[in-house]
Amino acid sequence: MKSIEQSELWRRLRSAKHGVIIVLGTGQWGKTVTVHSLIAGGTFPGRNVALVNYPPSFVANHSYPSNYRAVQWPDDLNEIMDVIHPSCDVVVVDDAIFLAGARDSSTRGNKGLQKMMTIASHNELFFLITIQNSSMLDISMFQSQDVYMIHKHMDLVALQNERDQQMISQTVANILLSRKMGQHKNINPKSWAYCSTTKEMLCFDLPPWWEKNMSKPFKGMIPS
Ligand SMILES: Nc1ncnc2c1ncn2[C@@H]1O[C@H](COP(=O)(O)OP(=O)(O)OP(=O)(O)O)[C@@H](O)[C@H]1O
Ligand SMILES: [Mg+2]
């Protein structure tokens, strides 16, 4: 089994200066863990990690590495560079439905994110986005040229609601993921992911600093 450092995804991201990585899959199947495990694997050396709209107290009260911080997505996009730093940050939009849901395509946050994705390359930024199903995410998120798709297990109902473009990739992913889970009983089934961009299976361990509560940054609140 290849480590993340031996993967094509890692090689491509290490040689890139920008990109949009979308992690798809059913709730509790390890999307948030995948994002942090990818970062912990040294994929973005020297970068700081901006957790969009995470409560600052949540970040302060958990054992995130010192290069992690909570940032508030601004109402006015002109203020974005006060919040996110070109060439220096990895921008994590966890549960992107709150900021870029398909049904909110005219909201300021969504338009702002679309614009930022469009200019991700000019600002040398990586965006890491998690969402349960691509049909929940605004279509523009998939139209940037440097999108990498990572699939976790997706249950049948969610799969039936997938965008046409993702239906085949996610079906292939589900089959390959089930096979790996069956073959490696000693590995947590949630570790597996399939990257349909690089066409490879990946295995993401929990980051060494992971705490179970980190799965629930929005517990008890409805993010704006
Ligand atoms: N690779 C792994 N090894 C061991 N446990 C894991 C792994 N990935 C996930 N888990 C467990 O599953 C829980 C849920 O994972 P995670 O929060 O990443 O799911 P999620 O897909 O982001 O869920 P949601 O859609 O609700 O945000 C974690 O808190 C952890 O306990
Ligand atoms: Mg999550």
Overall description:
With 224 residues, this protein is α/β, with parallel strands linked by helices. The chain has a single domain (4-211), classed as Rossmann fold (3-Layer(aba) Sandwich), CATH 3.40.50. 29% of the residues lie in helices and 17% in strands. The protein has eight helices and eight strands; from the N terminus they run αβαβαβαβααββααββ. Strands 3-2-4-5-1-6-7-8 form an eight-stranded mixed beta sheet, sandwiched between helices. α3 (56-60) links the parallel β2 and β3 (68-71). It is globular. Bound molecules: adenosine-5'-triphosphate (ATP) and magnesium ion (MG). The site of adenosine-5'-triphosphate (ATP) has 19 residues, from α2.
Brief sketch in words of this structure:
With 224 residues, the chain is an alpha/beta fold. Helix content is 29%, strand content 17%.
Radius of gyration: 16 Å
CATH class: Alpha Beta
In total, the number of domains comes to: 1
Number of helices: 8
What's the total number of strands? Answer: 8
- The CATH superfamily bears the name P-loop containing nucleotide triphosphate hydrolases
- The CATH level-2 architecture is identified as 3-Layer(aba) Sandwich
Bound compounds: adenosine-5'-triphosphate, magnesium ion
List the strand order in the largest sheet.
Answer: 3-2-4-5-1-6-7-8
Biggest pleated-sheet summary: 8 strands, mixed
- Quote the CATH topology: Rossmann fold
Percentage beta strand: 15-25%
SSE-based structural type: alpha/beta
Mean pLDDT: 89
SSE pattern, N- to C-terminal: HEHEHEHEHHEEHHEE
The best one-word shape is globular
